[in-house]
Amino acid sequence: MRVQTRPGRLALGLLAVPLLITAGCGRVPTPTKAGDAGGGGHPQVDSAGKVVCRDGSPGVTAKELRIGVDAELTGKAALSGANAKRSLDMAVDDINKTGGILGKHVTVVYNDNQSTNPGAVNALNKSVSGDNVFALIGPIRSTQVQAMTEIIKSQRLPTMIGATNASLTEQGGGYIFRFRPPDSLTGQAIVAYARKQFSPKKIAILHDSDAFGSGGAAVIEKAAKDAGISVQKASYTTGDKDYTAQLSSLRSFGPDVFTTYATNSEDVVIFARQLQELGITTPVVGGPSITSQVSFDLGQQYLQGWRAIVDFQLNAGDVNKAWAAEYQQRYGSKPDLFGAWQRDAMYFMKAALEKSGCDRQAFLAALHTVETDGVQGHLTSNKQGDVNANLLVVQVRGGGAEVVEDATKLLPAA
Amino acid sequence: MSVSSRLLERPHTLAALLVLLASLPFLVNPFYLGVVVLGVIYALAVLGLYFVMGLAGQLSLAQGAFFGVGAYTAAILSTRFDWPFPATMGATVAAGVLVGVALGYTTLRLTGHYLALATIGFAVIANIVFLHWKPVTNGADGIAGVKPPVVGGFILDQNFFYYYVALAFLAVGALVGWRLKRSRIGLAFLAIREDQLAASTTGINVLNVKVLAFTLSTVYGAVAGGLYAHGLTHYISPDNFAFELSVTMLVMLLLGGQATVPGAIVGAMLVTALPEVLRFLDRYYLAVYGVAVVLLVVFLPQGLWGWLESAVARRPRRLEGR
Amino acid sequence: MDVVVQLGVAGLAIGMIYALVALGFVLIFNAVNVVNFAQGDLAMFPAFVLAFLLTSSRLPLPVAIVGTLLFAVVFGLVFNRLVYHPLRNRSFVPVIIATIGVSVFLKNIALVLFGADPRRIDPLIHGVVRIFGTTVNAQYLVIIGVTVVLLVAQYLVFDRTMIGKQLQTTAQNREMAALLGIRTDRMIAVTFAYSALLGAVAGILVAPLFGVTPELGTLIALKAFAATVIGGFGSVPGAVLGAVFLGLTEIFGAAYVSSDYKDAFAFVILIAVLLLRPQGFFGEKVGQKA
Predict the structure, then answer these.
(1) What pLDDT, in 10s, does the model give residues A348-402?
(2) ipTM score here?
(3) Which residues in A lie closer than 8 A to residue B276 (C-beta atoms)?
(4) Contact residues on chain B for C275, CB-CB shorter than 8 A
(5) Measured between alpha carbons, how far is B221 from B217 in angstroms, rounded to an integer?
(6) Which segments constitute the Leucine-binding protein domain (chain A) (predicted)?
């Protein structure tokens, strides 16, 4: 029995050794030091005043500029990750074919985040410490961006995201730039358009119970109630595929308009089909997942006449048309919103780099000043890092959607 | 049981393992620092499973949910009520005791698989409550800004420092587990695992002892959850604590070797790091990970630690028969 | 009334899907005393195979279905040989872990092989059917019909044929079965093959409604598992009735109580059953089989 005390003392004693060694060890970070600032904050120019990309910043070598991607390549949101990869592969090939960025070959390093928060953080750490990237294109899911935010800030890593929870850019401390309109805008636009078109007294909301769906639903609910419209919500778990119960209870509420805020397009289609089967003909105004390619592929016949507030509309504008044609040729399918924002983020970064050179601080400053025309419309950052405020009202017709009007005009001026 | 005679169960083995863990931040690529912090935190939760499963032989499938209960307890107290780290960690212990005793006395009266079944139920329900009890848990958006511990004016928010905070908890947890196994309580756990009926005839109060083992597991789980909330990302959301996490923790214990403290720790570190190490396999890495789990179970019947033990001892591998 | 019929039919159909997966759980549990964590993926993966045979190989639907069922049977046999068989003399825990490994493998290999785009499978009968003055999706009725036929066939085989009796004896007492000259290893292989077949039927039936994604089986398996407990763990009729009960409770609960807690109903009932009637509605006392 006496032996019992030994492991304790021994272990604690030995434990103390490396702790003591750390005091003088070079690899130990000091608690106050933040991450790599990556430069002095001035644009890099040569003697002739031309912007150049010098080595020295993370991810910048003599030949190469490395951009990380933290995406949902496996797990629940694997579909959005697959589209991100297609879009970015194409964007990078095109950029490299025309000389790269400031003469550097652009390399994209993908790290799967398994569609989970710890996965997103591991992928981020790998991007920063393992791949040593200059900037990051992050996830489309808000909880994962939330989990990454502290590290992004402490590493001062310029990060482009597609996640739409309104608070993300605000919390990002100047390092997070968003290339999709926040839920606060989309949700308000849904209600604004529904009011204009249908003057409803009652609005029903069906939403995914995840952060995206419940966040959007909360915005819709608030906007509707502010306008004196009564609201009933019903939610479903991601992965649950039978909405008979939710639809029955919403139908008995007697809504004038159905709204949806669904994370996955395949869920939207099932919802649409069941609505039809139950004989519900109430008009629907919903979020962007309604007009994804997956929605059209799986069940366009159920979606006819549906309206959606979207940030991406196929073939809207010349940039978009050219991009869609190339995408179609390369992959044999049409692109959609899952992929559009990453392409825009890549070209937006290119534009900023061509003003700042490869100095991270200067790059962050340039991200606030550049303007580009992307496949999602005109892009320029506001103060907190929201780059995309383009919203359209579209209506499903056949295997695509038609633009009804500019949704931003429906919103009170920001 | 000649437990203490096994070579790798000698005290300095555990001490050596802890020393190895303590020097890990100096050995690994900085990218893996986050992974090893996570591994150490998971190891503490898995040590909890070691009591209830490894020693007492009761299958519990809600360790991820207890982890979540601790994480939410710490996160809420830290962000809403500004409790400092030591106070929130104390609260996670209380939360663990509460859940363990309440769930234990209601379900452990039954024999057989019932604890496993009831804990699955608890795991799923807990996650639904995290997701939908908005006023308290902030729903799907989760809770951000959980404060890191502060020691002597230094904010220990970087992985490097937080690692040692987590490791200190793990070391204490491991020593308690180590000593307990060799105490009368530990013997009572083992007796119940081997034969409940026989155990009760020797005067062991089977229900109380099982509840104790279970409560130890919930406390370890909750404390580890608190550590998770305060470190790494300072952010938690319901999807962190899905049923899959409970399953993964079970895998960790089993692959490590279920009836030893070092086994639980090694298993947790291994399973946390394995997908990261396999990243070079690109799209196939998680499929390979799945196969690796099967192969490890088939070819290392006593877990990684048991295999190490027999390899070191150069003795023919012991059969698992009990 | 319309609403009650629509909810009832949908609840019954979903319950039947749970029942097929629940039966897979129970049969394997009875035969080898192990909970198979890959049971949901045994529904998901064949659904992908069917989608593949239909779209890439362009086989006609009946041929593709037969091909998928054959695949499932072979898969069940391989699963038994490579995963269960090497572990057959060990305690139940390593087997559980191995099935978890298989589950991870199947989800991710499906993603690699078939891609992330959800697959669509057209239903056998399109559109809606009018019954009791209201409309319901025809596929719900197909699900109910096919499952009922399958269950009756299963009952006849188990109860009236030699192989059925051998399977039952093996499940009840393996040593005894071996003494009686039953080749228990073979019976266990048959059980795995049949459980995989049940999973495939569930996957094929549900695919036209839900679409096919790697996560298809996850939630279904969890609910099916709850159903086996509610019905009485280890009981075949219990699993079926528990599943139907669960399908109906869930849908009416979500419609009239709260959709937020739709998934919670199953597990609140599960815990209530464990506390009040631990052997389930139909189970005999399981005792200490483990």
Answers:
(1) 999 999 999 899 999 999 999 999 999 999 999 999 999 999 999 999 998 889 9
(2) 0.84
(3) 122, 126
(4) 106-107
(5) 6
(6) 65-400
